[in-house]
Amino acid sequence: MSGPQSGNGERSSVAAVQSVDRALSVLEILAAHGEAGVTEVAAELGVHKSTAFRLVAVLESRGFVEQLADRGKYRLGFGVVRLAGAAAAQLDIAREGRRVCEALAADLEETVNIAILDSDRAVNVSQARGPAALSTHNWVGQSTPLHATSSGKVLLAHAPDAVRKGVLSHDLPRYTAGTITDPEVLQQHLDLIVEQGWGATAEEYEVGLNAVAAPVRGADGDVVAALSVSGPSFRMGTEEFPRLARRVVAGAEEMSRRLGFFG
Fold this sequence. Notes:
Elements: H1 4-33, E1 36-37, H2 38-45, H3 49-61, E2 65-67, E3 73-76, H4 78-108, E4 111-118, E5 121-128, E6 143-145, H5 150-157, H6 161-168, H7 183-196, E7 199-202, E8 209-217, E9 223-232, H8 241-258
Antiparallel strand pairs: 1-3, 2-3, 4-5, 4-9, 5-6, 7-8, 8-9
């Protein structure tokens, strides 16, 4: 039987969800009106002015709302722009890369993916399957470890120092007998990726699955994604990596041009 503590927990959860809903409503109010005072926000939300003030204060502390000097009114802050920019960038990568993905999958007859860096993971944002692809698994939206996948290693090799050091300073989980779990060995692989312009994995994340990936650059030259091809190890042996890499690198360069990089 549920006791008082269970009831309190449920009420707390409901209150938390309500606060999030109200905070999002504040952003929508400011987006619709351009600017608004706490009194106006409270009236539209149907809450006490003190509640509206607390909501606005939290949003202001995170940069999503900013106060207009000496006017007591608020408007959307650059935190919203930052989130919108990140979302737009991901949409651009997936949209501009779709044609490249499909062409490469048809050419190599295997599965082709586009992945981006998300904290200490790689997240797949687009996928195309070639006619010979054995797996029907959809990787879009799923995250994979940086140290055990070809896309992950390419992204890690070009990641900010803080991200790379963070990954190398923690335990590297083993997924198969081929997974690299020694930070020094992984660093050597990352150095080679930067030097040769592509990376690969041989049954390091899944037994029987090999992959080759290359970096995709944005207009400013920074690596914003990785383009990869994966397939069964009996068909995509390590001896095939250089040949496949040339095709994947060419695809990544085309995608980079579509994103505005002409270096």
